[in-house]
């Protein structure tokens, strides 16, 4: 496992989920931990080879691919785990993520490591803004993607921006990117375009010195899906029918897990369109339908 050095004390491990490292005199602070025990095991091996003690994992948000290595690393090293209050509730009770997506206790196919990490005890609840411990790491609010997601700015000016933006390749491949609050996600992207940092590190794209092209690709991607959802409401349609419409339009094939993620994202787009007065809900013959407003 190799790292990419971005600052005097900041590195990251490239992967399906980028993991950040900030090295201080007392040891290393991680930004997220990857998907599962195997990710945690690889990180532990790297730190042991370099003889660097792990002090704390700062989790940007509670999606399983960001905190899945926490339990292994905490057990192996005794490290601290920090997260915002809402995200910590899901991390300590990970069945809540598939429950949130399905709106009920999850059925068997949703009990997988991609949607439900191992429970991760959080011993330090932090706010979503400002410096929170002796490392000098600064929490930066990044609302929209999940409940109370944060980014982390290091003292050497590397900004980890979590899932506020995705790579252009992922947007092209999947089209419907997971989001809970479209309006907040767009505002976060707007704020990023006015933010300065030596480096920006998204969780699902390579580090970049210029966030503007990535921010614009994500803004266009969100708006493209919202426009498609609106088009799918030309005739009154249920959420399931709207998702089928999007699948046809963007040539999507989905697993069960991807279906519930995309269904939640469709709900987020519908809520945003409703707030803008562009669609309205109606119940007909026991089915909740969405239609364009005149």
From TrEMBL:
Instruction: Please list the coiled coil stretches.
Output: none
- Keywords in alphabetical order: Hydrolase
Q: Which InterPro entries match?
A: Metallo-B-lactamas, NDM-1-like, RibonucZ/Hydroxyglut_hydro
Q: What highest taxon heads this organism's lineage? A: Bacteria
**Residue ranges occupied by any Metallo-beta-lactamase domain in the UniProt entry:** 16-204
Q: Which Gene3D superfamilies match?
A: Ribonuclease Z/Hydroxyacylglutathione hydrolase-like
Q: Name one GO molecular function term.
A: hydrolase activity
Read off the Pfam families from this record.
Lactamase_B (PF00753)
Protein name in UniProt: Glyoxylase-like metal-dependent hydrolase (Beta-lactamase superfamily II)
